[in-house]
Amino acid sequence: MTEFSVNDAELEKRFQDRVDDEQKIEPKDWMPEGYRKNLIRQISQHAHSEVIGMQPEGNWISRAPTLRRKMILLAKVQDEGGHGLYLYSAAETLGASREEMVEALHEGRAKYASIFNYPSLTWADIGTIGWLVDGAAIVNQISLQRTSYGPYSRAMIRICKEESFHQRQGYESLIALAHGSAEQKAMAQDALNRWWWPSLMMFGPHDAESAHSGQSMKWKIKRKSNDTLRQDFVDQTVPQADFLGLEIPDPDLKWNEERGHYDFGEIDWEEFQRVISGDGMCNRDRVATHKKAHDDGAWVRDALRAYEAKKANKSEAA
């Protein structure tokens, strides 16, 4: 019998051909180790962001101004937890375990979106998070619906539908504040002033300074660059701020007729690096809160394992 072998270079060429042909890569397909590791890093970071992102909003559930607002916020925070589960499950199809991913988060080896290391100080922050933070997430995640890895792509399709609801409820809340009393409008403007620049930081560093963007774009894990996504977000958000009658806190913001886009000021990249390095206003509290919740829930995981073991023993006995 003749034995056939294919070297790594040929396998990588076939893999890239499939990606270039817009075919989805599935868990049992051959893939370069770098592709697998890149996906685990990105998907787990995305999952951590969803779960950590529950904290600044969950802080306001008991203080929502009306029962309707409370119900909406409860539903939204619950959705975010579900998004984290979808994404952890997608990462597990690549061979990563939930325990490894959570451990990396607790030990500071894994990152999450820098925006969640800022505090939610007023009720207007909750609407602004929905409008800006979820709006920025949608800009990024719409393109990820076409990511090359099948389980990630399918998770994003479902997540985007729910994120659209989150963005709409946040904007609707800000409409009420911006068109309310002078004090309410001032509170909305204050929230915009504090969340605008961190929202732009969500898209990551400039393309030339991004460690992973080039390869991720080649493998079509990412479909648009950081700077392109950031520009898309600014272009869609400025008219929304105008409708609210709020002023974006950027003196350099202006429409560029020649480019067909808004020009905007430079981000404080030193602040960005400080926050993603763990020295933001809420970094330590966010991780400590997650770790405590994880430790407090250990008995539930232990009970589930015991139940599964009991069922397995019964099956073997039968």
What does this structure look like?
The chain is built from 13 helices and 2 strands; from the N terminus they run H-H-H-H-H-H-H-H-H-H-E-E-H-H-H. With 318 residues, the protein is mainly α. A two-stranded antiparallel ribbon has the order 1-2. A hairpin with a 4-residue loop joins strand 1 (254-256) and strand 2 (261-263). Helix 6 (123-144) runs parallel beside helix 8 and helix 6 packs antiparallel against helix 10 (226-244).
State the end-to-end CA separation: 43 Å
Query: In angstroms, what is the radius of gyration?
Result: 22 Å
Q: Biggest β-sheet: count, sense, barrel?
A: 2 strands, antiparallel
Oligomer, anyone?
A: single chain
Strand content is under 5%
Query: Strands across the major sheet, in which order?
Result: 1-2
Shape: globular
Order of helices and strands: HHHHHHHHHHEEHHH
Task: Please give a quick description of this structure.
The protein is mainly alpha-helical and 318 residues long. The protein has helices at residues 8-20, 33-52, 54-58, 67-92, 98-106, 123-144, 150-178, 182-201, 213-218, 226-244, 269-279, 283-296, 298-317; strands spanning 254-256, 261-263.
SSE topology:
Layout: H1 8-20, H2 33-52, H3 54-58, H4 67-92, H5 98-106, H6 123-144, H7 150-178, H8 182-201, H9 213-218, H10 226-244, E1 254-256, E2 261-263, H11 269-279, H12 283-296, H13 298-317
Antiparallel strand pairs: 1-2
Helix pairs in contact: 2-4, 4-7, 6-7, 6-8, 6-10
